[in-house]
């Protein structure tokens, strides 16, 4: 199944929908992976997507419903009765069903839960609904294979045959005590080699890496990433095994976090995609633009204060963009390095003072190089040594300020448990604009005017 | 094993090293996961890390060597003989051994390969060394469990007992034909339920999702992510099963890509961490600063051209920062959305014209809001309607230009297979600075001077 979604394929599908060519559509769609059907439904418009959905049949439609994007899914669910939704949920694993049911208004959630015929399934979903979406409990699934440590190998094999019915991928066999408390894992290797009468207790591996059900999803994801885990068991406060988290769910958390940081650094305040509506995209972009406006207006006040001098020395205005660009770039660079190191836990244990000292040297090093270029350029082209000196000294000062500020702010935010990514992008550039201008004109006032 | 690395723990370790308290160190270190030992070794200095490494013993030291960061590992390897390295490699899986040996100079690579006693192991490593590091072959491992489709269930179980010896985690059992060509996968569920005489041929699942050995690592990673796969088989051109890629290796690729994009957007030209040396960090940051310098100098020329007017209307200089900030922010926002959509394959099939049209509306929408605020502010505070009009019109023009340029450049780069992330950050802001100034002063010239 090496399928690639092309524009031609989409055109074929849309064409078939318009001509109500159901046989063709059914044949094409059933040859696709549910993930690809969900993607086709994302690209076509809503009525077309609904047309496709109706052709999928019970089994496939519930598989596609799991994969479909949240905002499209919500609209589908609106057009279905509680009984129809319940029927789809019965075919899903409890964690997938929970993700779907979470999109519904609370009163309909209850209706749907009551309409689910399998009581165990509906109570599993109810339990999962109680956990915070961003916690380990919110991303775990409750289907796994476990062995009581008092079982024999032969006994365990028989029990696995029953349990495996409910589980999609096995990955790891967990070992629990009589109270269902997690004790360890069973290696397939040792299991396959052991004699029928061996007790699980005598061949299992102790001390598995596990997470508490209330731990943050982000913590879980970085733990799985750090230890290269494909699956991690989830326990409650008493150590009882509740479920497991597979790496695909953790991967979603990791990606979302990285994208959020990138968007924040780019001045976008809520997660958007290029396919979102005009209004959603505009709204996500407006807040930082308004902050930028405020910065620009404050900058106007700073420069306005020196307006008299500019009338005499208009050349000072020419170098405003240079000063602003360098302050902005240095600030973004230094904050990005800190934010990324914080996100990856690769920050070392140096004190904040030591980190600032290091940034001071980097800023001075690059600042002196850039300053020397600017100084020579100014002197040669404008034949005005005092102006050249003003630009050169201002650049070093702005580099130093911007580098230190860009390092300090995310470290301080992190110390007080505020997301350091807030400090990146427009915030740093806006602040640096205002302070940079102040530095530039004060130095100009001292050395030039 | 719920270990968290604290500053106190590191201090204890460093203290023990300084006092040569080997017993204490051995006890502490052997209670840690190899990943955590590698992390301790990253945080302490090199001689301290070497001290720790010598205390680990053969088994653990080779496990730690796999987990250790590349630049520290290189230095360790320098102090070891080819025989010592070979001994460590023999205890590793072939793909891990390949990662380690890749850090060595080529002549030493050969020496080490010859020193490996297990011929099969050394030829596996040699084979893996031939693949491009950024291809499927470069990140796959060659240990997996497979069944010939002509085997019976009983026969397969016996063979699995032999194969499992070599494999760390099983995840999936692959089904191959007599020529070792990948035919499908074997579900544990159906295997456990089948009678001893059933042929694998009659119970396996056809058409597994697989990747070619030469496919780019990035393509593999996004395929695994899209289909929620924990492991994916790798085949050669004839369909022969060569190896498998597990999600932890794909995750590294995904993270690295996201980090590269973020760093490019922040004007950092090579991957650095806050713990890197002053010189490395300065060097990574200097290129974009020099480009920023160039932009600033071009900006100075643009403004210099209007110097005569500024002498008369110094107030025009006051609003330079506002114009620059808004052009920069809009450009970064629009390019970030496109770059991220391209990276996630969530771009829809609209033509470039349609995407530009959409950005035009977003830019106009936000531009008119910001422009109205600026116009009223200017008019009220400066009582100068022509100046207010100039600022207002300039802002709308700059928003439009910056939004369209920020959308267009990454789309075009992507079309010609250049990394669109190149278009973000300093490149967009630098270009927008120069063009934004030109727009501002030309509109000022038409409406105000």
Question: How would you sum up this structure, described in words?
Answer:
The structure is a homodimer of 449-residue chains. Chain A contains 22 helices and seven strands. Chain A has 449 residues and is an alpha/beta fold. Chain A has three domains: 7-130, MgtE N-terminal domain-like (MgtE N-terminal fold, Alpha Horseshoe); 145-247, CBS-domain, CATH 3.10.580.10; 278-447, Tetracycline Repressor, domain 2 (Orthogonal Bundle). The N and C termini of chain A lie far apart (73 Å). Chains A and B meet through α3, α12, α13, α15 and α16 of A and α3, α12, α13, α15 and α16 of B.
In short:
Chain A is of the alpha/beta class. Chain A is built from 22 helices and seven strands. In chain A, helix 14 crosses helix 15, helix 19 packs parallel to helix 21 and helix 20 runs antiparallel to helix 21.
Task: Give the helix/strand layout.
2 copies of one chain form a homodimer.
Chain A: H1 7-18, H2 22-30, H3 34-43, H4 46-54, H5 58-67, H6 70-78, H7 82-90, H8 94-101, H9 106-115, H10 119-129, H11 136-139, E1 145-148, H12 153-163, E2 173-176, E3 182-186, H13 188-193, E4 205-206, E5 211-212, H14 217-226, E6 231-235, E7 241-246, H15 247-265, H16 278-305, H17 307-312, H18 315-318, H19 320-343, H20 352-382, H21 385-415, H22 426-447
Parallel strand pairs in A: 1-2, 5-6
Antiparallel strand pairs in A: 2-3, 3-4, 6-7
Helix pairs in contact in A: 3-5, 7-9, 8-10, 14-15, 16-22, 19-21, 19-22, 20-21, 21-22
Approximate shape of chain A: globular
Count every beta strand of chain A, where a strand is a DSSP E run of 2 or more residues: 7
The assembly state of the depicted protein chains is: homodimer
Order of helices and strands of chain A: HHHHHHHHHHHEHEEHEEHEEHHHHHHHH
Q: What portion of residues of chain A is helical? A: 55-70%
Distance between the termini of chain A: 73 Å
What pair of chains forms the biggest interface? Answer: A-B, 118 and 118 residues
CATH architecture grouping of the largest domain in chain A? Orthogonal Bundle
Give the spatial strand order of the biggest sheet of chain A: 1-2-3-4
Q: Output mean pLDDT of chain A.
A: 88
The CATH superfamily of the largest domain in chain A is identified as SLC41 divalent cation transporters, integral membrane domain
CATH class of the largest domain in chain A: Mainly Alpha
Runs of chain A in which pLDDT lies below 50 for 5 or more consecutive residues are none
